[in-house]
Amino acid sequence: MNFGQADLAWNTNSPKVDPELISNAAALVGSVLGIKPVLYVPDGGTLDVVKKARGRKAALHAILDGVFHDLSKVADPTGLRIHILQADCRGNAEFVRDSIRAAYPQIGEITITSLGVVIGAHCGPGLLTIFYLCNGRSPE
Fold first, then answer.
1. Using 50, 70 and 90 to split pLDDT, how confident is the model at 6?
2. pLDDT of residue 140
3. Does a structural domain hold residue 139?
4. Which one of 87, 88, 95, 126 has the largest count of C-beta atoms within 10 Å of its C-beta?
5. CATH number at residue 29
6. Domain-located, residue 136
7. Is residue 113 part of a domain?
8. What counts of helices (H) and strands (E) characterise the chain?
């Protein structure tokens, strides 16, 4: 799973994020500077920061780079299903969907779904998550 959030402040209260990873001060400075965390959940289930992009566009491209990295290890991605969850950022989700489709036209269904309120309360608006199952997943 590759994902990014619009604001670091949503990470400070998450029980899944190590407090040493992001403090309130770091979230404030990161928000002022437009730093967008790009996160990855590897097979072990941890929440890893793979990049801190400056600006939303750079974060979206970093997320796509992670997806493309994983897909490059798949022998035949024909029919692979991809799910995109978004929290009030439908345009970003469509950009990601269209980018994946352009790079891998043989991919199967790519769905876009709105995030539910429970997870949305923890992650905030602007969350974009991409789910897919394939062998060889690892952060770039």
1. low
2. 56
3. no
4. 87
5. 3.30.1180.10
6. no
7. yes
8. 4, 6
Q: Give the pLDDT band (50/70/90) at residue 58.
A: very high
Task: For residue 7, give the amino acid letter.
Answer: D
pTM of the model: 0.79
**Structure token pair of residue 17:** 């994020």
Q: Which two tokens stand for residue 139?
A: 């952060």
Q: What does the chain come to in residues?
A: 140
- pLDDT digit string, tens, across residues 13-44: 555 554 545 566 666 677 778 888 888 887 78
Backbone phi and psi for residue 118, each to the nearest 5 degrees, phi listed first: -65, -55
Judge whether 77 and 68 are in contact, CB under 8 Å.
no
* Assigned domain for 140 exists: no
Domain count along the chain: 1
Q: Is residue 110 predicted with pLDDT exceeding 90?
A: yes
Q: With contact defined as beta carbons under 8 Å apart, do 139 and 102 qualify?
A: no
Domain that holds residue 70: 2-131
